[in-house]
Amino acid sequence: DAGITQSPRYKITETGRQVTLMCHQTWSHSYMFWYRQDLGHGLRLIYYSAAADITDKGEVPDGYVVSRSKTENFPLTLESATRSQTSVYFCATSETGGSRLKETQYFGPGTRLLVL
Amino acid sequence: AQSVAQPEDQVNVAEGNPLTVKCTYSVSGNPYLFWYVQYPNRGLQFLLKYITGDNLVKGSYGFEAEFNKSQTSFHLKKPSALVSDSALYFCAVRDMRNTGKLIFGQGTTLQVKP
User: Given CB atoms, is B70 within the 8 Å cutoff of chain A?
Assistant: First the structure.
C-alpha cells in the first residue's frame, strides 16, 4: 500500500519557469492538501480540495495553481517560479466527513524545491 | 480567532527522563486536537489525537497527551525519553469553520541527549 507519493522528491529550477509537483494517493481519501514548510513559518496551507473538481485557497495561494480532475491526484503548479517559492512542499490527505473519528491528515514525504 | 501555540521553540531533555512538549489552543466549541512528529527530511507522521472521551490519549511510540479544557491545553508527554525521539513536533487543531482543515502550531524541536 503506497499511501501518498510525491514526485519529484527534489527539484531545481530557474526563476520564471513553470514547475508542477505531483501528489498521488491510493486511499481514495476525499480531502487533499498542499502545504509549504519554511524555517520560521512552520507549515502553511497553500490550497486544498474537498473532492474531485472542488478546490479552495489556503493561507498562501498566490503564485500557485491546483487542479483535481481525479480523486487520487492533486498536482500543484508554480506558474512562474520565484526564489521566494524555494521551500519544502508537502501533500496531505484526510478522510473527513461522515464521522468525527475521521479527521487525521496523512502526509507525503515532501518535495524539496530550489528556485535559482 | 482560532489558533494553536507551542510556546517553546526547543525542549532539551536527558535520555530516560520524562518529557513534555507544550501546546495551547484557542477555538470555539469542542476542539479536535492532534500531535504530529517530523523526523529530518521526512514528512509529518501522525502520533495521536483527541476527539472526545478520556482526557488522556495514548498514541504511537509510547507518547501520550492530556487534554485540559479549563487550561485549553494539550501537552504531549512521554515517561522516559529516548535519543530517537529527537525530532520536530507539531500540535494542530481542527479548523471549526472549515471541515477537514487543520491549524498547526509553529513546531517544537525536541532534543534528547544521551
Answer: no
